[in-house]
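Suppose you are handed a protein chain with no further information: no name, no annotation, nothing but its sequence. What can you learn? This example shows the usual starting point.
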Amino acid sequence: MSVLVTEGLGLRTRRGWVFRDVDLEVHSGDLVALTGPAGSGRTSLLLALAGHFRTSAGTRRLKGRAGIGLVPTINEPEPGLTAAEHVRDQRQRLMLALATMGYPELVVADDVDLGLSTAERTELWQVLTDLAGQGYAVIVTAREAPDNAIDYDLEGR
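A reasonable first move is to predict its three-dimensional structure. Written in structure tokens, the prediction is:
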């Protein structure tokens, strides 16, 4: 079942197009990674898909509502971290958990792989895959997508 459908979605500012001609169909259980280099419009597109940015072109249809979990990292705290660092880490996990409260149709998270080691990225993608396996449509921004994710590359768009 389609949770989100966009046709020709675009955002134009005074400085030009941030993104344009975005055609997406996201279903329950999909894990979608919006990838591309810094400045490619990943976060702007993510927020537009979740309904938090007005677009200047195209259409967006969202079934239900989006749970926003802007989570810079999701990883286990290391034994050597300070109390403040542990709190920050737990806050990141809490944001993802809060995003799923009320069982939204769509869960979005920004820069999920930022600053993570290879092992941490593997763990993160497993958590996100598990969320999708529970029936959530999951859209995240990342520098790279794993093989099991639908990779929507913004480079050159």
